[in-house]
Amino acid sequence: MPPSTPDDVLEHLRRAHDHADRHYDKPLDLEQLAAVAGISKFHFQRLFTATYGLSPAEHLSRRRIERAQDLLRATNLTVTEVCMTVGFSSLGSFSGRFRELVGETPSQFRSRYANGAPRIPGCYLFMAGLAERHVGSASQEKPPGGAAQ
Prior knowledge:
Structural class: mainly alpha
Radius of gyration: 18 Å
Strand content: under 5%
Order of helices and strands: HHHHHHHH
């Protein structure tokens, strides 16, 4: 049943907003976020944009870029690894969006912090589960019994 009062709607929008913030590194689409809010996707799109001033896709993209900035400053992950870790599937779209929001490329951003504190090795991030999104079979465990799927 759709929410009937503005307070109810805001509560549902916050649920989807928080879900996007927590799961930014996973593939999320409008339909999934609308389902979390319990609102039709077209109504959700209009309400989210009116409430937060950004579309759900823009919010998710900004969240990913914010996390990418943290990783570029603090780790020794490559730009491609950062791109995949924060949920982008294309290095080109990541770099373009990064430049659009930050004003410089990911590599330029990283080079500004090159003389800062020592970087956290990427292997520690992956072992600790801080960078959970892996792309490629080399980083995935083999199924039990050694049989390939």
